[in-house]
Amino acid sequence: MSQASRWRLGREPRGYILFLMLVFIPLLGMASMLAIDRTVGELLSSANQVRDKRAFFRADGSATICHRELINRVQVALPTRLRTASGINAIATYVPNDPIGLLVDYASLTGASSGGPLIRPTDNPNTPTDESRTEASLPLAYTVSNTAYSCTLTVVSRGAPVNTGSLLSPQYLFRYRYAVDGIAEEGGVTRQVNLQGTFSVVVQQDSFARYALFSNSQVDGATGNPVWFTSRTSFSGPVHTNGQFNFLGNPSGRFTALADSFSTTARYYNNGSIMTLDAGSNGLIDVPDFGGGFQRGSDNIPMPAPTDADGQRDAALGGASRPNLDGVYVGAQNGLATGGIYVKGDASIRLGVGGPGIAQYTISVKNQTYTVKVHPTTKLIQIGSGPLSNYDFNGMLFVDGLVQSLEGTLQRDSQLSIAATKDIQITGHLAYENFTAGSPPSAEGATNILGLISWNNVRITDAAPNDINIHATVMAPTGEFRVDRYTDTQRGNRGTATVLGGVIESTYGPFGNFAANTGYARNFVYDTRLGRGMAPPFFPTIGRVISTVAGINDRPNWQQTN
Questions:
Q1: Are 471 and 500 in contact (CB under 8 A)?
Q2: 42: exposed, middle or buried (C-beta count within 10 Å: 0-12, 13-18, 19+)?
Q3: Which DSSP category does 227 fall into?
């Protein structure tokens, strides 16, 4: 730059300033536009992300709502509606060719289910296709907090239903697979969430075996006097009476599951001044411990009629004619080896294990002893020293007479019911070969199960040991389960009678005397398998139909699809 130019810049800089402005202002504008464009892009992207997330969460929420609807239908609507079924034969109509019909007809409940019954793929239920027998769906739409949700529930059978019980005591197993599609749209963005899983339903006639304790009346059958729940009483399963419960002391019995009575009131000892209250306790004087609640005013559940013994006898005979001579017989029908064990006359019975996989029943009738060995898994039988024969033993041992003595161990693969027209007298421990010892004991996971049904009384005799263990579900529909000479002060306190199973009786048989401290304390431990529908063979049933569900609460497989 010349000296003259430098002089002009110093004296007149406006031209250069204008030049610089003309150069830098456009550059600054371009930079601002780039920044603004980036911000707008980020805002647009953020808005898209918001719409996407909203669509996703609504789709996921819709699928969850639909899944909860399925759970509600299977766990609430189905068992409620099944109580209206005319009997287990009504369920047999879905076996084996219409498995989805069970859910279509029973898995919806007015006021509790959304969207009505499940829908078959065909509009004509009188001429269903194969697909309509195995698949049903339900489109559902919800509005929650002014937000719309929609989903589709589809249930498909995983195979033909099967009878996992017996011909006389069927248990129908239905297996299903479900898919739930939740869909949502937000500003042109659509998201879909898919849930998939499986579940199964076992439907059967309700059994008395599911109770830890059931009685028509909580009184001594011999005297008519109340039998009291005291601190020596403990029940770890459902308890029901068609009469009124009696409570004494604090605590006056411990109940881990629901206790319910037909009576709307309970009787309290009240330090000897007995009173009746519509309440779960008598102040701090008589205080039962209800872990599962106390429901009064429940339905009356009739005991089975004595004629039910005829069906048990026929099951033991397997179609053969009733013999005239005392002895031990195995059933046979038209030359086919099938049935149970029939005993004519008073008998003593000892359960045992005759070797690996072999159940042994030693039965004495009129000074003659019969040894019957049953192979439960290979369906073979051996009487005395005779040869092995093919025999489909159905688990029924019926005694037309008195069981004078009963004790022993039930083999691990065996499922047995012992029924008698007269008393069953327990003279020693009755134990499962396969069980978990402890306090309390448990048969969870085991196969062996024993039922005792007397059409008179079941009695623990003087010959029985102290602290006796009885692994069985005991039933006396017309009598009671009681202890002989329970007030005998010479015998005194006999410890605790632990029953792993349940007790069903007409009147509540006494086990001990709380004032004299004689007899046994009760420790009735519920066999949790009974709560899932397991029962001894040919055990008396209740008129209603029940269901047991597995897998419905398992976490489903989750997938997002666009």
A1: yes
A2: exposed
A3: -
Q: Name the maximum alpha-carbon separation found in the chain.
A: 150
Return the HEC string of 38-83.
HHHHHHHHHHHHHHHHHHHHHHHHHHHHHHHHHHHHHHHHHHHHHC
Task: Determine the Cα–Cα distance for residues 473 and 467; give it in Å rounded to an integer.
Answer: 18
Could you tell me which residues are beta bridge partners of residue 349?
363, 406
Residues 163 and 231 in one domain: no
Distance CA 370, CA 348 (A): 10
253 and 339 part of one domain: no
Identify the pLDDT of residue 123.
47
Q: Are 443 and 471 in contact (CB under 8 A)?
A: yes
Q: Which residues span the domain enclosing 438? A: 318-454
Considering the domain architecture, whether residues 300 and 335 belong to the same structural domain is answered as no
Over range 422-429, report the average pLDDT.
98
- How many domains in the chain? 3
CB 284 within 8 A of CB 273: no
**301/402 same-domain check:** no
Q: Determine the Cα angle at 549 with ends 544 and 555, to 5°.
A: 160
Give the pLDDT confidence of 305-320 residue by residue, as tens digits: 998 999 999 999 988 8
- 176 and 91 in a single domain? The answer is yes
Placement of tokens 């969870």 in the chain: 444
Are 524 and 502 in contact by the 8 Å Cβ rule? The answer is: yes
Helix (H, G, I), strand (E, B) or coil at 335: coil
Angle at 115 (CA atoms; ends 111, 120), nearest 5 degrees: 125
- Whether 18 is in a domain gets the answer no
128 plus 249 within the same structural domain: no
More confident residue, 133 or 69: 69
Per residue in 94-114, pLDDT (tens digit) is 998 889 999 999 998 887 777
pTM (2 d.p.): 0.76
Could you read off the pLDDT of 281-338 as tens digits, one per residue? 999 999 999 999 999 999 999 999 998 999 999 999 988 889 999 999 987 654 557 7
Same domain for 53 and 176, yes or no, is: yes
